[in-house]
Amino acid sequence: MKLKSFQGKLAVVTGAGSGIGRALALNLARRGCKVAACDIEPEAVEGTVALAGGGRGDQVRGYVFDVSDREAFFRHAEMIKSDFGQPANLIINNAGVGLGASVREMRWEDFEWLMGVNFWGVCYGTQAFLPQLIESGDGHVVNVSSIYGMISGPLTSAYNAAKFGVRGYTESLRIEMRAEGLPVEVSCVHPGGIRTNIAKSSRLATSRGPDQADFSKWFERITLTTPGKAAAIIIAGIRRKRPRILVGPDAHVIDLMQRTLGIRYQWVAGVLLNPLMYGKSKNAAAASPPSVPAAPSPAAGKPTANSKAPRKRAAKAAKRAADGARAEPEGVA
Length: 333
Prior knowledge:
Elements: E1 10-14, H1 19-30, E2 34-39, H2 42-52, E3 60-64, H3 70-84, E4 90-93, E5 99-100, H4 108-136, E6 139-144, H5 157-180, E7 184-191, H6 198-201, E8 203-204, H7 212-222, H8 227-239, E9 244-247, H9 249-261, H10 265-277, H11 309-326
Parallel strand pairs: 1-2, 1-4, 2-3, 4-6, 5-8, 6-7, 7-9
């Protein structure tokens, strides 16, 4: 299979001020790609441009707008085409926010805020740039869903609604592009736990779950993949034109679990996540989950970046839970 080249192409990346978005912008720029880095935070996107644009002049530009604003997104699509003097080849709809709230306690304004960014922002970005991608003759839509676009969990109903929606929307688009014979590849990305700032910027609205500090601490303990590694995996998937890109060992475990167990995965989610999100004690939310080892102390003195232990423990924990789920009758899930 011929791999996609990024040299001289134009890529648009949303949520490029930090995390995966920034790592993607930097990676693409190093490959000779022109990059339109987009974010709602001016200082954040300026930082990305400064890091990615060294010696590249106008090859990397920053844009500030709210992806949940449809008119703003379409205006910026035309602005980006005008600024670079060519149609976009690649749109990566990466911008996202988090919300932890039960269905009973969730406020409509929080639900609508999340859907505006995580779902409608993806739809707006796709449709704003689709004409340019077709015009380029070598287009690619990359929409970032989540492992929560494959399974559900407690306190994540809004996030699940958006990420399942992104998955369905993206897979339908891919079928349409192929049926019409248009020169646009389509990929849906499912990251697992990535070490980004999303936990700190997430909204929590629940009387039974963790507070912001405990949630951030818990999130840091379960994240297995750095933004740089995530970006490398996504870029490799784009080059190979993969329709589904799984990011991180936990994403592969969850994908296998969902395929193997079907609806019984909900029992596993209850075993692994309910004690953490609804913990029996005040400190339960901050505790390390069964699937991931606690972070070593600085005194340990051993590098852990390339350690395979977290993956093995995650896989073993999922297998134990899966074995228990298989023992449950169908009606339990």
